[in-house]
Write a structure and sequence with these properties.
232 residues; alpha+beta; Glutaredoxin; Glutathione S-transferase Yfyf (Class Pi), Chain A, domain 2; 2 domains; 4-stranded mixed beta sheet; 11 helices; 4 strands; 7% strand
């Protein structure tokens, strides 16, 4: 059985990491048998990050590498759209979400004070007291430094929200009147889009980006269709 090594779930989602959730969404869409290992430590994985899958004796790290591994190994079991290579548009959509939208969401969760009030307890509330009193501040400080180095943390809150809203409108335009980003049925790109949108819409973190997204009927309807199909 495939083992999915990931962070402990939070916010009532499969996972509060969109990258971990992306892999689980793909596994569910594919109908592959798996089990979650929710206490995995990133520093003990091949790339120092999660998610990772253990498939037989092989460890595969990085969410996109995992999806491509499963597409190759399980090709005969997958619907045509799930095993199909990415189109140029799908690649650009995934890169926007993973390499731009992600950092706006990260800032709104970890640096913005309103987001931190929900994120801190969700990620660290289960830890024993001595660790719970020290680790959150250390991780938040590292996150602030990383976001400053990446560039998103150099912008104001209003500028960060504006960038995220442009990405959401791009998703509205890309989805158009189709039920899924893959077309009439989900493709691999839907594992990414659903994971990122569910983390934005359904994590209980109030901010202008989430408020606007909840007023976008096509994105909300899309997430509801995906939830009805594979869960939240």
């Amino acid at each position: 059985m495939i083992e999915l090594l990931q962070f402990k779930p939070a916010f009532g989602l499969m996972n509060a990491s969109p990258f971990c959730m992306k892999v689980e969404v793909f596994l569910r869409l594919a109908g592959l048998e798996y089990r979650c290992i929710n206490d995995a430590l990133p520093m003990r994985t091949p790339k120092g990050k999660l998610p990772v899958i253990r498939d037989g004796g092989e460890l595969v790290a990085d969410s996109q590498a995992i999806v491509e591994h499963l597409q190759r190994r399980c090709a005969s079991q997958l619907p045509a759209l799930l095993r199909a290579p990415e189109t140029g548009t799908q690649l650009a959509t995934r890169r926007m979400l993973e390499e731009h939208t992600y950092f706006t969401a990260l800032w709104l969760r970890w640096i913005d004070d309103t987001g931190w009030q929900a994120t801190g307890p969700a990620f660290f509330g289960h830890l024993p007291w001595p660790l719970r009193s020290v680790l959150p501040a250390l991780v938040r400080r590292k996150m602030r430094r990383d976001l400053h180095g990446q560039g998103m943390g150099r912008h104001s809150r209003d500028e960060i929200c504006a960038r995220a809203l442009v990405d959401l409108q791009a998703l509205v335009d890309l989805l158009a009147f189709r039920p899924y980003f893959g077309g009439d049925e989900p493709a691999a790109i839907d594992a990414t889009t659903y994971a990122f949108l569910a983390n934005l819409l359904w994590a209980p973190i109030d901010n202008p980006v989430r408020a606007k997204a909840l007023q976008m009927p096509s994105l909300l309807g899309y997430c509801q269709r995906m939830e009805a199909r594979i869960g939240r």
